[in-house]
Amino acid sequence: MSTHRIVQTRFLHVDRPFRLESGDTMAGLTIAYETYGEPNAARSNAILIEHALSGSAHAAFHHEGDARPGWWDAMIGPGKAFDTDAYFVICANVIAGCNGSTGPASPDPATGRPYGLGFPPVTIRDMVEAQRLLLAELGVERVRCVAGGSMGGMQAMQIFCDYPALFDSFICIASTMRHSAQQIAFNEVGRRAIMADPRWNGGNYYGELPPEGGLSVARMIGHITYLSEKMMQEKFGRLRKGKDSRAVFRPSFEVEHYLDHQGVAFVRRFDANSYLYITSAIDNFDLVSSISGPSRHRGENRMRGKGFDTMRRKKGLVISFTSDWLYPSQQSQAIVRFFSGLNVRVSYAEIPTDHGHDAFLTDVNEQTRLVESFLSSLDA
Amino acid sequence: MQKVPGHAHDLIEQWVEPSSRVLDLGCGDGSLLDRLKRSRQVDGIGVEISQDMIVQCLSRGLSVYQADIDRGLSQWDDLSFDYVILNATLLVTHKPYDIITEMLRVGRYAVISVSNFGFLPNRASVLFRGSITGDVRAAGTWHDSPVIRFVCLDEFRASLREMGIDIMDARHFLPLGIVTRTRIPLDNLLVREAVFLLRRGA
Known about the structure:
heterodimer, A: alpha/beta, Rossmann fold, Rna Polymerase Sigma Factor, Chain: A, 2 domains, eight-stranded mixed β-sheet, two-stranded antiparallel ribbon, B: alpha/beta, 8 helices, globular
């Protein structure tokens, strides 16, 4: 449609070695990214958007010929929460992902064949470090706000802590400073589903049939955790689809069809190895130990306690959803406590909703009101 | 909410030391906190239950925390604040004792404003008209008013004594714009509203 705003994913190729938190080095990497809106003369109106587990750089607008807009189009655009008439909005695909940035499906320069499990383990910090290179490349030396939900919230907090001088504020939605045992457990079941699929073949399936069965089961588990019990009940209840249920163990309940659909749709656009790498990065994420532990390789904040002063009086907004049992409100409240302790001026809102964890993608109106008023109060 | 008289804000502004840390419980649209931030350079956080009010506070650039204060202040460590303010909010709470106790756990001083149900016109309304005045109920009627508690000044003072809380300072608002610092005879009858500066007893 002619009213659609069109965007193209662009690519930054970094030819220098990229050192990971683990100490491993990648010979180079590619970062897929998109931008919306225009930088102002002082390049001081940037907003960095961080995507969640299955997201991509395509956060808003439309790709040419694609009927579906980016994953957070409801929040990013002219007059929207992240107003592209006022801000220069940037979103990059995480490394280890499979939507344009270097990941396990990318060719290993050493062999020319896909990395597979030869891809080094990456952390949330590595993901944002790659984005730091992108910001430098774009000439952005000051970011008004870094924002994201779920894993995007983890990245937002990490980069805000690693480069406090670069960011005026952060917005963290439906996230946590570290996974609980339950959260790790759900991810592990997803990973096991992939690895139990014979087609996975130790991660070496490129050019052959990918482990779609395992990946779709992983996605189905994920989707159960993204919805609230109440919403599932209201949406599906015990409704059945199709009259013919002679065939045993074929999906007949609506909820089974829904999960099946989610799983099938996912395997078309996501790489199983990326799912393993990214969920591991999420499980290993521990914000407090990452910024207060012994010297690391990353960030201007690498020395213990240093940079905390830079964070003083910066602003944060933490949002949770009442029915989100995957990332419950207590975890967001702990984030507020932590940043308040660092003298960051943190605000907290808990949005009442039945939509569970997915609310960060669906409950746009309340989030828009909060984000708009928060951004409007930041000093220009 | 109850009518928030500007004079309570004036008074609280006088009490609050410059550059102190302030927690404002039931901060509403943040007008008091905003004022304290400007005139007293306080480092303040508001607590509100209403999403609309949270949005207004954010627009003012205030730090605000969405929570039901009846569920406690466990989010904050002991003595995190110099002042914890409960202005025009006490009578809408379910657990006033717990809240006052929590206020003096997380703050050095508590500032609490109380509407006096014993105020003569309130009594007269019950006696002669057989109804509670609209002022007492703020906006609303018996079944939908946010005000769920009615307390007389004497009762409130007795509660403070019982809880071992010291009154450091107080202002009593009488009709005709009269404000007294010290207690006057028959104050349980004559005072419309009082504001207390409180501290945990030694």
